[in-house]
Structures
1.
Amino acid sequence: MTPNDTAALRSYVEFDEVEKSFATKGGKVAAIEALSLTVDEGDFLAIVGPSGCGKSTLLLALAGLTTPTNGTVSLKGRTIAGPVTEAGVVFQNAELLPWRTALENVLLQAEVRKLPKGSLTERARQLLADVGLAGFEDHYPDELSGGMQQRVSLCRALLHDPSILLMDEPFGALDAITRDQVQMDLQNLWLKSRRTVMFITHSIEEAVFLADRVIVLSPRPATIAADIRVDLPRPRHVADRGSAEFTAYVNEIRDEFGKLGIFSDRDPVSR
Ligand SMILES: Nc1ncnc2c1ncn2[C@@H]1O[C@H](COP(=O)(O)OP(=O)(O)OP(=O)(O)O)[C@@H](O)[C@H]1O
Ligand SMILES: [Mg+2]
């Protein structure tokens, strides 16, 4: 084993000097620049950063759906060279098939992976029940609210018991109350399995509520501006968001955004 192999085995996920640029009609766009990051197994990592800074690109590189221009991304010590089948992925829109019921949409995961559907049906029902959808298994997506649809999408991502869950602003389209509820659902599911999660969000509060660790990315090209461990007891409750500790973490992250020039606290009159 080479020293490099040993280093890679230390972390569950490793981004090593990752750079990603795109050739566009308007010229080269650098999305990520020399970004190095390691994530431990079982960690719930949230990534926040300004729009267009490269968050989705980072997640796609870990899913093996885009290749870095330079550097490597590895999972469990193996360099990612193609789609990572052991990952579960949830995007901003639920992306359910309208002609399939909630249960059939969850079981789609088994079909595309050619897994035995019969034995996974019970697990699919259990996952739906865990997120409060017992009794809605046979409903079609247009009979479900946006929050319910996103929960179905979460169950579909978890059906094959992925070793890592990649989530790209999964709750961004939901109203505030529904969002609180699905965050609780996600936390409770996560507490059962403690799988590694990489969760992208625009919401600092959501990041602090869910994550063990919050990475703040700089404006494009993305580099790591701050890496903050959130040491709040679990399970966390909606009411905890008013606590001094919670607010201190939110303010710390907001300050990082301020340092990056993303927020301005200037009096609007004097601008
Ligand atoms: N396939 C692509 N071709 C060309 N440019 C791309 C491509 N994908 C992303 N980009 C560019 O890379 C940069 C980062 O995009 P990315 O989608 O990763 O940002 P983001 O942080 O996820 O943004 P948002 O918060 O708005 O979702 C942007 O400038 C975007 O225009
Ligand atoms: Mg994005």
Note: The first helix runs from residue 3 to 10.
2.
Amino acid sequence: MSLNAGQMELREEAVRAESPAALALLSGFEHAPRVGVAREMAGVERSPGVGAARRFRSTTPGLVTRQVARAGAVHLVERVEAVGGDGLPSPVQATVLSVLRRSAAIALALGAEFAARTGLDALKRANLEGTLGADKRVAFGELLQAEALAVLHVFGNAVAFLLAPHASEVTVEVGGVEEVLTDNAPLALQGVLWELDQDIGALASDEAQLVGVVAAFAEALMEKIAARAVTAPRLETFTGASWQVEADGFAINGFSPARKAKGSTITMQFKKPHEVVGNHIAKYQAMRLAKMLMAYDFEHKLNPFAELGGFIFTFIGDGKPGTGKTTLIQMMAGMIHEYCGVAGYLFRYQNLSVDNIDSYQGKSGQNARAFINAVLDPAVIGFGTIDDIDQIAGKRGDRQSSAGALEITSVLMDAFAGANTVVRGNCTFGMFSNYPENVDDALRQRAGARFLVDGPQTREDYIDILALLLGK
Ligand SMILES: Nc1ncnc2c1ncn2[C@@H]1O[C@H](COP(=O)(O)OP(=O)(O)OP(=O)(O)O)[C@@H](O)[C@H]1O
Ligand SMILES: [Mg+2]
């Protein structure tokens, strides 16, 4: 994998150098929880009506009145190996542990990089020597906090990324991450590892759940840190640059999670171009569009056709029932699928269908958003279709349209030509309908092209279609 513009490499030696420290974190350390509550204690039942408040309260204002918990030992390696316990660590347990170690090492390496770039390491040295000036104290504290936040997020991000290929469909609810300490990076990692240790102990009883707990924990951690980072100062060095860890293909882009781009496995019947009779203009436009998509440049995330013109981001295909609209989708998806197979690109096809309309307020809009986002993903070639759009998207002011259908209309309108629409040229959306006049005017207007699908017209067309349908 090559580096994109503005991307820096997090060198393998730097990550390796942190490996022993990461291993030490997994093998064992002492930690006294400050925010989180140990699971064993939290599990104690109380009689109803008996409050949990302490009877004696310090009256000194500002003094933390919470009882300091005793330091407990955290042994993650033993904890993980004890899951399902049959004496020897299993391949899954070994994978989880090496993912945790690798992620901690990456996080620490990034922390070191951050410290070097911001001058934090010089401040740390001055602090150790006792020469840190009073004027630098605020900056020092803020930088330590920024480093801790960056390290924690990268840790969660790396765990989620590296563990993704091993995840099963088992999902576990871990709740929010509490023990987020931002005094400095090593303490921050200890805090979250302590909590992870608690979660594994309480929630993982077999290997699938172990992976589920760790993955869910990583997601919860990223969410928590990203929310914290909104208001935290001095993070520009981290958010302004991006890093790449070559060996894992892992990219760090500030506080946005790295996801492994996944194509979707498509279960649909593909049609070959010769199986589409008539519909000449639509057919050739679709074939051209499929080829144009292949000009997408994954490195710069742009398609020359999108810049020069001629790229069709959205189109509408309309025609009478049974004239070959669905057939056209099958042909186009088939062609893109084939081209992507040859070029080694990931292809994602999604169809927005009636199933996506939900009776819950807001859920239909979310479904439509998820559909759009999946197709827009700049790491894949995308093709999104909305077959029979008049049934799915509503028309504003029409009493017959359900609230869900109207939500879908508004999301599509925003996505196709809204204030923050970026046409990169990696994907295209097709809308198909028998009754385009039933589609909201503004949505119909957003289609960049109209493909007329009027089916077979001439005597020859009908002979062709008869030959096709009769087969041998
Ligand atoms: N132009 C065509 N070329 C080849 N086959 C066609 C064509 N039009 C229709 N057919 C045949 O008719 C069947 C129905 O076509 P298709 O499902 O594509 O129609 P549609 O336009 O999507 O209809 P609807 O509007 O009802 O969804 C297909 O299985 C296909 O075999
Ligand atoms: Mg159809």
Note: Residues 7-253 form one domain.
